[in-house]
Structure formats: structure tokens, C-alpha cells
Records
---
Amino acid sequence: MTTLAGTGPLTKLALRRDRTMLVIWIYVFAAFAGAAVYGFRKLYPTAAGREEFVVASNHNAALLTIYGPFYGSSLGSFTAWRDTTLGALLAGIMSIFLVVRHSRADEESGRLELVGSAAVGRHAALVAGLLVAGLANLGVGLVLAVIPIALGLPAAGSIAFGAGVALCGLVFAAVAALTAQVAQTARSARGLAIGVLLVVFLFRAIGDSVSASGPSWLRWLSPIGWAELTRPFGTIRWWVLALPIVAAVLVGLAAALLAVERDYDSGLLATRAGRPAAKASLRSPFALAWRLQRATVFAWVIGALVYGVGVGSAAKGISGLLGSAQVRRVVARMGGEANLTNAYLAALISLTGLFVAGFAIASVLRLRSEETDQRADPVLATRAGRIGWALSHMVIAVAGTVVILGVAGFAMGLGHGARAGSLGSEVARMAGAGLAQVPAVLVVAGLAAALFGLAPRATAVASWSVLGVAVLLLFFGEILGWSHWVLDVSPFTHSPRLPGGVVSAAPLIWLCAIAAALGLAGLIGLRRRDILG
Amino acid sequence: MTVAIDVAGLRKSYGKTVALDGLDLSVAAGEVHGFLGPNGAGKTTAIRILLGLLRADAGSAALLGGDPWTQSTDLHRRLAYVPGEVSLWPNFTGGEIIDLLGRLRGGLDAGRRASLLERFELDPAVKARAYSRGNRQKVALVAALASDVELLLLDEPTAGLDPLMEAAFRDCIDEERQRGRTVLLSSHILSEVEALCDRVTIIRLGRTVETGSLADLRHLTRTSIAAELASPPDGLDRLPGVHALDVEGDRVRCEVETDKLDGLLKVLSAAGVRSLTSQPPTLEELFLRHYAGDGPQRHETAAAAADGAQS
């Protein structure tokens, strides 16, 4: 039996299990590319207007950090500017999830053991995961190339754009294959691979935003940078596309070699021994929930701090950029009205609200995974009641949301205030702006809790879909000119535009009331339903 | 109180799959009660209803004199549960999980915890992700056995244990019996149930098919007899209660209903017994009679139902 025996059937099985998810991913990419082309065509119809924005943007550290530089001022260049780095990041995340899901995660669940005892080779599951990720990236590359072509952009540039993003995804499929060999659990395999992704994003961000004398070569170390350095729609450098191919092959081979070295369901990193008895404090459902979630909460708080200081300190430079009437319109549309720095900060705060909603959903969904992984049973068979058990995780979701948003706002105030010379007032103002996002996030978390109690099997898919719709509405709703009836569906539409906007208490109180009602509905539902093992 | 568990006519279905179809189960306080049935018979469903994790569709269930659904948290102070498939938090050590579950139950005997760890040869400093299936099972067992409770609900607790550890488990259950605790032991391992249990309930396709003490049940079983005689026997085929008769000259093999044993022995000794082996009835036979005894067709339906039903 070769080490690849059974790869075909495993790949088919994986594709079957993932068919819905893959379609959704590819659809997201299609929407992503389509909205950029369509939106920019509406916003910047003239070459002069685009030229103006390109010059300003290429001198703005914040935009360079997030999106990278422009290579040209055509509509295609705008699309590539907006979508290349973020698209490459998304493709990386998609690939990491796919590969880990079909290798280590299946080992943990014991599914592969069942399959592995049949005629399946040592490398089959890993290669099947890589093949699925490869096919997914092929699909992503195709829609990213075809949609711009269909919307009238040059074919060569569109293909370079699609290929750059897809190949970055492929590199991270290989990286995930490698971390799956090293890490002790599927969770940490994913975490390690995403860590690598963030580091290379940072390399690109630093390389793009430093002055000419700085370490701009850093972006050459980044697969995300390669997608951008191909310069789709500019003077295309096809040879750069060879870099991700070589990297993916090398990293993939390294993963295959390491796969032989390790045991089933264990990584190359050894498991350390822990404490033989529990701390005295580990004695309640809440202590258990906190122990399960604290690492995530801490990671988010640190992330919010770094992100806040980073984007906050770029705020002062933004007014230099905003010479152009068009940009003024974009930013004003994304956030507040009065002052452009405020509008920039407000836009970032809204964005942070959406991120943190991701945290809140994941935090509530922990209940569901505890249930389906059968770890809830032994806890609920003690005097810990269902309500106390569920509330423990919900309290962490709520408190975590408050702390993370507060810290993000505080850090933005810190970053902005230090440069603007008004530290005290900025810190307080921005922390308040962050906290004003809390009610909208809680509505999303409340919805997840309600689903958990009333429609447990739909919880995960429905919660994430709701967040996806909220993201779509916030980013594209106004650009695409949807009616405010549609926009009003999203709780984030009702958050105040801070800093700079006017706060009225009524919508915030309503949002909190709706969130509380949803959470209560979830608890009542949970009390009445079966715990599904 | 004399009845620890009293279940009558319990029904539960998951969609179209019927898991329990009128289950009756009665466990007296202080007894070790075997709960036998093939995979998918509904044992786990019954236990999860008793724990208040599932709500029964119909029928009545009383646990320690209370309603398992409405009074679950109060009742849970007085019982400990070991699931059949133990899944633990991968980042916790075994010791941490034992302590946590014990404390959530309302207290843990530290001395007993230490002695159980030793008897089960379990290292409590190992992270749960590194435990084998048997070791995960031991974590749940130590947590349950070290708790100060009246009732133990054990769902196939030895499925992952090696024979040595299974022996340690049997010793522990014997001690629990002496301490006056009630144990409901779900199992499909007959020797274990035979060795440990005072009374047994056998279920199949969600229904109780047999219940009683082992002695009661043995009356329903047949003893296997093999004898070598001085002369060919006469009239064996006319005896009541004799089955699977196989006579080859002066050698006889047959099965006899246990209460008809005397009649058979009289006929055999009339022919002159040279050697005689008699095999006492085992639960195995009882079991096989209930699951496969009615011919291949019934066996197949039972197996198909077992595959389809949630256990």
C-alpha cells in the first residue's frame, strides 16, 4: 500500500462534506470583486478623480498599511488595490480552515481512525485536504479573474489578480499542512497557521508603509506581498507568481516529510505535564467557562490594543490625504459627517464593532460545541443547572465584548491623541465611541444565544450568516444604493457614528432590550429542550 | 426509601427513530443493578432521561423519589454519572477534571481520590488530550467513585479498560455495594454483569424483555448436559423440557430446562452414567436467546434496528 492510497475517495468525501461551505466562500469572493469594480466605477468615474486619489493614497501611511500602494490609476488598479491584500488574507484563512479540518480535526474526532483502518495511506488525508484547498483556491482564482473581465476590465490584469490571490491561498494551505504536523491539537494547528498569516500580513504592511530608506524589502518575504507585487493591472510582473508556487511546493513537501515522523492524533511538539490537582478556584460552571475562554479573551484584548494604537496613530495623517472631494465623500459615507479625522476614526470603530461581533458569536457558540462534543453532559449531570452553565458563557461573551471594544477605543484614542497632542480627551472620547458599539454587538450575540436555545442545530450557520449579512450591509449597502429599510435590519446601522456624531439614547436602549430579550428566549428554549449528545 | 429508580412505560423518539418504546426499570436502593442490552437498545437514552438531559415523550420516571426533569439539579447532588463515551477538555489535566467534576457535584473525598488514582494507575498530571480512551474512562470513574453520593449511574464504564483495570473496577463496585450505594450499571459485557449485579434488566429495541435476580433468570435458561453412558438411553426424546438432543450410541448431548433437570438425570442414571459434564446456565445464553434465539430473521431485524437507533 502506498502512502497515498485512498486519496481519491477521501477527497471526494471531503468535497461532499464541504460543498455548501465552498460555494459560500467562492460566492463571498465573487461579491467582493464585483462590489469593488462596481463601486469604484460609480465613485470615481473620471480619470482625473482617480489620479488625485492615487497620489494622496500612496502618501498615506494608514491606507498603505491596510491596502498597500497603487500601481496605476485605472479602474483595475483600484480593484486590485482594494481587494488584493484583503483577498489574499481571506484566501489564506479559507485554506487554513480547509486543510486542518480534513487532517488534524478529523484525527481528533476519530473519524480518520475509522477511515484509516481501511485501505488508506499515511499521507492520504493530508493530500486530500490539500487537494480540496487547491480546488477551492482554483475556484477563487477563477471568479476573481472572470468577474472583472465580465465587468469590462483587461483580461491579463484580471488573470494576474485572480492568480495572485489564489496562489497566496495555496501557500497557506501548505503552511496549514505543516502546522498540522507540528501542533498538538487541531485548534493550535489553526492558531499557528493564522499566526504565520498575520506575521506575513504585518511584513507586507510594514514594507508598504515605510519610507524609501526603510525595510521595504520585508514585503518580498510575504506571500500576501507577492500577490500585490505582481502588479495586476499595472506593469504586470508574471514571474513573481513563481514565488508562491515554489513556496507552496517546498512547505508542502516539508509537511509530507514531517507527517511520517509523528504519531496519529499528536503533534511533533510534545505535550507538557500539567498540575495534578485543580486550583481551588476551579469549582463552578463560571470558573470552567472562564478557563475555557480566557485565552481567547486575552488574545482579543491584546489584538484590540495593537490594532487600536496602530490605526489610531494613522488618523492624523488622514487629513493630508483628504484633499480630494471624492475621498471626502467616501469617508464621510463610511462614518460621520463633520470632521474627516472623526469620520476616519468612526469608520474604524464601526469596523471594530463587526470584528468584535465575531468574538461574541464564537463565545456563545462555545456552548454549542461543548454540547455536541459531549462535554456538557458530565457538567449538566452535576448540580450545575443548565441556566447557570449557559449564563456562564454568555456573561463572558458580554463582558468580553465590553472590555474588547473599550480597549480598542481606548487604544485608538491613545494612538491618535499622542500624535494630536490631546491624549486625555482623545482617550476618553474614543473609549466612549468603542463602548457605544456594544449594544449592536450584543444583539448579534443575543441572536446566537436565542438560536442555541431554540434551534440548536442551526446555531453556528445562522449566526455567522447574520454577521455576514451585517458586514455586507455596512460595506456595500450604501454604495449599492439599497433602501434604508434593508439597511435598518442590521443592528450596526443603529449604532451612533462616533466620534463626531450625535448620540441619542433611544436606539442604544432598544438594542440592549432586544439583545436581552433574545438572550432570555435562548435560556427559556434551552430549559425546555433536549441536550443533544 | 427503598426504590432508587422507578421507570414505567418510558417512551422517547428522535424524529422517526424510536429509542425507547415503553421501558420499565425498577432499581431498589442499595442494589447493584445490571442494565443489559445490545448497542442501540436504548440504554444511554434511558440514562440520559434519568439525568434530566432528555425529556421523555411519555411514561413516568422517578429518581431517588424525585422527578428527573423538574428536580434535576437537586437530584444531581446525590448521584454521579460516568458516560459511555468520555470526552474531556483537551487542555485540562485528568486531576483538574476529577476535582472540577467532584466539586460541581458537591464535594470529593481526597483520600478516596488518592487511593482510586493508585488503584487505576492513572497519572493525574497528564493533559486530557494525551490520554487513551481507557484513561479518559478512568478519569470519569475516579471522579464518580470519589464523590460522596447515593447513586451511581454508569453507562458502559469498562468499555475501554484492560482486563487488569476491569478487575480493579469490579473491586470498587463491590465496595460501593458494601457501603450501601445504589449502582445502575449499563453494559453489554455479560461476565461483568454476572459478577457484579444483584438484579438485571434486559432491554431490546427500547423495551424491557426480562427483569429479575440472576437466580430468577437462571430458571428461564437451560443447562447443557454431556454424558457418556453404559448403554444407549431410552425415552430421552419423550422427556419434557429437553432440547437439542444429540444421541450417538452411548454418548448424549442435550440442553435441558433447568427445572426439568431432575427428570433427565433419572433417565440417564437408569442407563448407567460413566461420565457427566453439566454446564450451568450463563447470562450469555439468556442473552443470545433474547437477541438471536428466534432464528436468523429476528436477529437481523434486531441488528438493523440497533444500527439505526441512537444509543
---
Amino acid sequence: MGEIANITLAADTAAGAAAPTPWLLLIPLLPLLSAVLCGVYRALGITTKLPGYTTVLLLAVSFVVTLSGYLSFGGHGVQIVHAFEWINISWGDGPGQSFTANFSLYIDSLTWLWMLFVTGLATLIALYSTEYMADDQKTGAYARYFSFFSLFVFAMSCLVMADNLLLLYLGWEGVGLCSYLLIGYHYGKDSAVAAAKKAFIVNRIGDLGLALGIMLAFVHFGSIEYREIFARIAEIQTTVAAGGSVAWQIEAIPLLLMVGAFGKSAQLPLYVWLPDAMEGPTPVSALIHAATMVTAGVYLIARFLPIFALNPTALAIVAWVGGLTALLAATIGMAQYDIKRVMAYSTVSQLGYMFLGLGVLTAAGSAYHVFTHAFFKATLFLSCGAVMHGFAGQLDLRRLSGLGKIPGWRVTTIAMLVGCLCLAGFPGTSGFFSKDMILAEAFVTAGPGYRFLGWMAILTAGMTAYYSFRVFFRVFLGPVEYHAGEDHHGDDDHEHDDGHGHGFHPHAPGWAINTVLLALIVGSLAAAAPYFIDKEHHGWVGGLVHGSTAGHIVTPGVHTDAEHAAEAAEHGAGFFDDPHKWMYFASSAVGIVGILLAWVIHMTRRTSAASAPIADALKARLTPWSTLAEKKWLVDELYDALLRRPLKLLSHIFYLLDQFLVDGVIDGLGALPRLIGRSLRPSQNGVLQSYAVGMGGGLAFVLIVVWVLS
Amino acid sequence: MSMILSPVILFAGLALGALGVAVAMPRRGVNPQIIGAIIAGTAVGLVLIALGVIGVRSGEGLPGVFFYVFALTGLGSALRVITHQRPVYAALYFVLTIISSAGLFLLLAAEFMTFAIVIIYAGAILITYLFVIMLATEAPTEETLEALSDYDARSREPIAATLVGFTLLAALSGMLAAGVPGLGAPEASRGPIALERMPGKVQNFIAALGVGDDVMPAAFMPADLGAGLETAARREVILGWNRSHSPVVLSRAAGEGAIGFIQLVPRDPDSFRARLDAARAGERPAGVRPLPAALVELLPDESTGLPAFIDADPPFVMIRLPVSVAPTNIETVGLTLVGEHPLSLELAGVILLLAMVGAVVLARKQTEIEEARKAAVDSRLRLGGEGGAA
Amino acid sequence: MTMHTVLAQAELMGGVTLFHYLFVSATLFALGVVGFLSRRNLIIMFLCTELMFQGAGLALIAFGRYWMNPSGEVFVIFVLTVAAAEAALALALVAYLYRRKNTLDAESWAELAG
């Protein structure tokens, strides 16, 4: 439990007043510039690859700025870079009687971690996109794509670097908007439009929770600026450490923030939008719906882990939701045939791991898993994208086989293999180390059913290994066979015949895709290295987390110094007493078993792409469970029946009420003055003297009344 | 509710008057205007006679004949103003009304206003009316000499109009006859008038007395001021204004030839009493400057019936102001107008100027229309001429 | 003895009270109202408003005399001013309207009819 430190937040934030470094503002502003430029290109009707290269260049500069910023950063403490005063209202001098939200960056080690992989991956994926999206150059959609892409990076930077909750919310909604726009990139396609709307609407539910959480935080902390909030939290931590209790409002804040995180990071019950979000272009899936945006929820909880730690119930909910999501998504992933969908469910599943990690208070493990997952999942998605690009949108693993033997697909195959190994948690890969940290911690931390959760997560790890290698074995090994997908139109820049099947020649990836894939292979493998740096804090990422606000948590009633020491001693005890040690072996074993199972089921006696006799037999044996899993446990149908249909019915009822009751009353009220007016109209005959009669008579009447009353 | 006049007589008279006016309003066909006028005149006369009886009964002698003459003339001619079918005659009857009310103003000692309304109304405004009547009436031809336009010959809903007008009158006069509590003016409005507001000749009179070393003038008190001494009793019937209700104590004390008093305040109140006594006794104590003989003569004693104000604290004396130096009505009005309402006076001037400008603008518009019409006629003629030539 | 005093005494001797004057003034006003409401000639309608002014003026002067306050008379001067201004404008308007419709009938101007 290295994360639990006794340094208070307030002391740390006070010490972290570093020299102002306004050039760090370039990190969010360069992507914004890129977005604007691409918008201008779109308006100018540029059909070259200029938008793509502009985006790559500016994002690369942004990444370099981030990197140099990180290198010049001392390690601990906080930098606040003030850009401009955005909102500043005050209605009194007392505490909580002013509302300040500046456009300022709050930069500590957690921010650096996120910004490094966000800008780095964004640059690589933008480079990949320059080739991947080339088909859209002529229509001008190319510039639109890169404009949204850059805007996303800007919004994500705002989200991660915000120094107040309002700016975070702006970024949060900004990434949601970009996600919506990019899922609906092919807006001519009904399924894309529906998926975009689904993503947006499901996220509304989560965002409502986040908005309420922010309001409650303002009401209770008197500010939405991180500095103030963490100072107040430090005070509360002091009282809690002294045995005091926590106000229920403080306990409600994490519950509300959590809802936002669940929505954005696709956790139960709001995960349904993410698999559908794969309707967007694959690079978008890789960047937004796998590597960066969906980790915003993890970031939010990690950033405010001190508040969550004050409420053990919230932590338990986070852990359980994460564990259950991981298991559910893995079961669905095992039965899908669309390889991109398998990846989507694996993303949901891995995000579940991250939430589990947060729930069991290993922010370091979660953040490390976010970091490694960003690399290997981007690798996997971009490999899928390469396949999709090359085979005209074909993604069905029953219609592709033996790609590894086709010349020109070597890099893609290796990338896929590396990605799958990492995902499966093969010993020695980055995914192995990051997953182990979370799994082990589930057995260390005390909590309701955490041990059971741990076993469940180990089972999920085995399933992950199985479904990831199922894809690899089916698509990249075995007999060579492929069928073009629906997007194959025999375009003139593709030198192959039109038509399906034998006349089709796959379109091997070009230099940009291969370069990016190579870079990501290196990245995925190298992501294991940080585990061995800074071992004291559970690796380099752990160090970064430890140095940030997430490193200073106090949970009510536990973790006194004595207990901490006892726990540390326990780590060094017998082999089975330290989960961190036996977990290496347990997860290795489970991962390898999963891979072998996939080999046995999907590689033995294979004759064609569509046939894997053992798999088919097994599927038939497991009916109806296999069918149910393939149909995603009918969750969408359940939501449809439980929520959408009743709501639609309700809206019809309200429509009728509005039409007849409300409109009737309003129309009746409207008719009344008209009636009165019609009856009084003759009195307004326009003749001066008839008005004067009214005046004189009225005066006489008033006089008589006064006289009688006096 | 005690009324100055029996309500039966008042309301019966008003009802009768209303009937008369309604009958007298111009209408086509049967024209009982004369009958109506007689009924209305009888009714008003009834009320006024009833009012006059009050005066007789209270032992005040004959009623003021001039008042009744002017009132009846004014009301009668007003009736003709609203009933006469020919606008020119209506305007002339209005002149008669003006002159009658000018007579009433004179009875009220408002000489300035008497002449002002005769000059302004009868002289200026009515001339304007006559001009417009002539402008806005078709020039009579042989056939139409006796013809009346419809809007002059026939009045519009005379019964409703009379009903409204006389209901208003009944309410007003009923309230006035009963006296409405709270209508009374504040005490201060009847208080002494500051000397600064008196004409210069009054101040000259005081200066000529040569008593400035011993006393200084404080205020002017009109002879009628005594009415204010009994305001509590008067307020019950504040509108009753006859002798029995207004004992003019000071006025009686002042006797003939005095219109009021000047209040003099001793400069040295402490020694004043002793010096006065000494002066009356003919003594001349050493070391004390004697009061001037003129002052001693001026001072009232018990025989004049004046209250001994000397005993008041601080003591003051009252001296009579002779009629020769009394401010006339015109002087009073002038002083009030310029001294108290200068801003309103200026504003009235501005309003008149603006009215003149407005009238000029309106008149100009008329000429423009005329010119436009003339131009149209001209062009038609010219076209016709050309057509004829071709 | 000035006219002032003579007349003041004459009133008192005649048994004429403030009410006498106010009654005459109210009756003048009411006759003006009746005329204004029932006569259709625009010029006579304005003449009737002058009648009402007269009634009001008489009341003001009577009250002024009763309270020995010259402000009543001064007020009548202002009323007179307004009446003069009103007469000038109103008569100009009457002439203007007459040119437009060639009639003085008040009922012919009913553009505001609802």
C-alpha cells in the first residue's frame, strides 16, 4: 500500500508553487490551432493530404512540448499555468460567496502521465490516419476528420489539465462531442448515426451525475478550483485521521462523480454505447474509444481518489462495478465474430479492470494499466484497422484466415501478436505487469467481497487470453483465405479487379500504417519497462501517481502507521501470504491456459476460414449460452424493453395530455378574453362623447361612493 | 347629516332642472326648447330662493340681490350655450355667462380676475371662436339661410348626457351642502402674513412711525383673521359662510377704517412692560430711555377691546393698519403671482408660446393642402386647355 | 373705505354663503358636462369645456376669498392661460379637421372604433 502516504495534500500543494511556465499552454492550444486550420482547409476545399500532415505536425509539436515540460518538471508538486480569467463572480466576501473558474492548467505528475500518452498516441494515430482516411480526400471529409480529431485532442487536454471542475466539465463534454461527431463520421450510414446518438445519449446520463457532483462540490467546498478543493479535503483528512466523521454531502460527491465516470468509461450499466461506437473510423476507435477518452473516467476517479477514499461504500461500488463489467464484457467478447467488436468488448473489460484497481485503492495499478492498455489496445485496433482497410471493410473472423502468410502483412501480424500477448497478460509483457498489480491488490485490500472479486478477475484474465488469441489464430494463422468486405467498390486507385472472392486483391498497408504499427509494437513492449523503474513506488507510473493528489489518501478508520508497518511486514512473509508474488504465477498460468485453449479450439483440424470443427461443436454443445453471449446477453434488448419502450409510451401519453388537456385549457383561457372582447367591443365605437359619458358617469359614481362611505 | 339646505329641496330642484335641460336640448321635429328652459330656470330659481330664505331666516336682512342677479343670468345663459342650435348665438350667450361670472368675481372682491376674464375670454378667446365658427360654416346662400346643419340641429343622446351631468351635480352639491370633513384647509393658510409679502407702502408706513428702535414689525394680520380663532367650531360646517358662523372679533375691534393689524415685537422684551407703564403714567425714570410718544399713542388699551398681548410671552403689540396703506386685491394677486409662483408664471408663458407655435404649424398644414389641391386643379385645367387646343 | 371692504360686507349682509357660490359653480360645470356630452358640433363642445373652466374658476375664487388666500385667484390665472392655449390649439385643430371632412360633426371622427 505504497499509495497511502501520510503527507497531507495541503502541505504538498503549497510546496509545489513552481516558476510560471506559460509555454505549457501550447499543449492544448496547438491541437486547437490544428482544428481551426483543418476547418479552414475544409472551407477552402483542399483535397490534398495537407490537413493530415498539418495535424500530425502540430500534434507532434504538442507532444514534444509535453515531453520537454515533463522532463523539466521536478517530479513532485503542482504547477498552475494561468491562461486567462474565464469566470469570476462574487456576491460577498465570505467563503463560498464567489465563483471562480479560470482557464488555467493544473499540472502535476498525474497530468503528465495522461498528457504524455494522449499527445504521443494522438500523434501516431494521426499519422496512421493520413493513410487510412486517404479514400475520403476527394470529398473534403478528410479535412473534417482531422479537424474533429484535433478538436478531440484539445478537449482531452482541457479535461486532463483543467485546474477547476468547470474546465474539466468543458473538456469532458468536448470529448463527448468529438466522439459523437467522429462516430457519426459516415453520417450517410444509418447505423453510424444511430451509434453516434446512442453514445451521446448514454453519456448524458453519466454527465448529469458529473454535473450534479460538481455542483455539490461547489456547494460544499465553496470552490471548484482544485487547489481549494484539495486544501479542504486535506482539512477533512486531518479530522478523519483524528477519528472524526465525514459529512454525508462529502460522501455523496464521489457517488455522483462516479456516475459520470461510469458513463464516459463505459462501465455497467452504461457500457452499451462503446461497442456500437466502433461504427466510427478505426483510428478513432483506437484513439478515442480505446486509448484516451474512455480512460477519462479513470482519470476523474484517480484525480479525486482522496474524496473517494473518504467513502468506503463508493470504493466498493467502483470495485464491484469494475469487476462485473470486466467479466460480462469478456463473456460477450468470447462469442463475437466481428474482430473490431471483440476489441471493443475487450476495451470495456480492461476498463473494468482499471475501475477494479481504483476500487481496491491501487491508483498506481490502474494508471499503469491505463498506460499499457493505451499502447497495446491502440496496436490492436490499428492492426484491425489495417485489416479492415486492406480487405475493404471485412471484419468477420469467419471470412478471413491466414493473413500472416500473405506478403506485405508481416508488420500487421507482428503488431497483432504483440497486442494480443499484452492483452492476454503473457508473462513478461506490459499487460502482464499492470494487470498483476490490480489483481494482487484485490487480495490485499480489505473490502466487501474483494477476495471473490480477485478470483473473478483472474477468471476474466483467462477469458481475455482466450478471446484475444481466438482472433489472432483465426485471422492471422491457418489456411490462407479471404473475402472482401462491403466497402469494396473497385476504386480506380486500387489496382485490382472488382467483384468478390477470387478476383479481389488485398490492399497491403503502406508506409505510414507500418511505421505507426512498428512504433506501437515498440511502445507496447517498452511499456513493461516502467515497472522496473522506481520500484519503491510500484514502478515509474506508480511514482507519478504517488506524486499527485491521488497519492494522498486517508480512509476512515484504517491505515494507522502501525498497521501499515504490519502490512509491509506481511509482504515479506511466506510465498502464499504475499499476493504480489504468487499472482505472477497465477496470472501467467491462467493466461497461458487461455492461449492454449484458443489454440486447441480454433487451430486444430482447420480447413477453411469459416470452419473450426471443435469451436463449432463446442458452440453447439453450449447452446443457448453461447448464442446468448453472441447476442450480448440481450442487454440492448433489455434496455429497449425496460427503458426505451416505456419512455416512448410515456412520451405518447404526455403528447396526448399536452394536445388535449394543456392545449384545451390554454385555448379555453385564450378564448375567454376573446369572448369578453367581442361583447365589450361595441362600447369602443370611437366616438369621443361616448367615452366622455363613461368618464363623467365614472366620476359621479366615485364621488357618490366617497360621499356615502364618509 | 346636517345640510345647509334641505336635501329634499336640493335634489328635487336638481331633478326638475335635469328634466328641463333634457327637454331643452335641441332636437328635430317638435321643439319644446322654451318649455324646457322655463322648467330648468324654475328649478334653479327654486334652489336659489331656498338658499336666500336661509339668509332671511337667520336675521341677516335681505339677501344679496347682486348675487342672485348674476347667478341667474350666468346659469340661464349657460343653458342657452348648450341648447342653442346656432353656434354663433351659443358663443354670444357664452359671453353673457362670462360677464355674469365676472360680476360674481367682483362680489368676491376679486377685482383683478373680474377684468381679466372679461378681457381675455369675452375679448380674445371668444373672438377666436367666432372666427372659427365663420371659417367652418358654409357661407349661407338664399336657400340655406335658415337651414341648420344636422349636427347643430340634433343633439346626441340628450337624456344620457343630462343624466350623467346632473348625477355629477347632485353628488357635488350634496357633498358641498353637507360639508365634507377633511376638506378644511390647514390652519397655517389662515395665519399671519409675513411682512415681506406686503406691498412696500405698508413697510413705508411702519418706517414712518419712527419706532424702529424699540419694536420691530413681525407680521400682518388681516382683520378677517379672527375667523381663524374659531376654526374648530367652523369646521363642522366649513362651507357655511355667514355672520353667525364667523364672528370677526378682531375686525370688530379694529372698527371702521382698519383692514388689519401689524404685529410689533419689542426688541427688548424684558424692560418693555415697565417702560410702557411708565410712559402711560407720565413718569420718566432716570437711566431708562422712554418709549416714543408716537408708539404709546399707537398702542391699544383696554378701552379698544383688544386683548392685552403685552402679557404674552414674548410680549407683542398690535397696531392698526389704516385703509390708506392696505394692499388692494390687485397688489395682493400681483405679489402672490410673482413672489410665490414665479416658476409657474414662466411655465405658463412657455405654454402660451408653444400653443402659438402649434397653432401656426397647424395652420401651415392647411395652406399646404390648399396649395396641393390648387396645383391639382391647375394641372387639370392646363391639360384640358392643351386638349382643347389639339 | 375701499371697494374691497364694501363688497366683503355686502356679501355678509346679504346672507350669501360660500355654498351659494359653490352651487353656482357646480351647476355651471354640470351644464358644461351636459353640453359636452350631447352637442355634436365640435366648436360648441369646446365652448362647453370653457363653461366647465368657468365653473372651476368660480369655485377657486370663492374658496380663495373664504380662506383669505390670494392663491385661489392666481390659480385661476393659470387656468385661464391653459384655457387660452387650449382654445388656440383646439380651434386650429377644429379648422383642420373641418378641411379634411367638411363637417364639424364629432361622430364623423370614429377612427378609433374597436
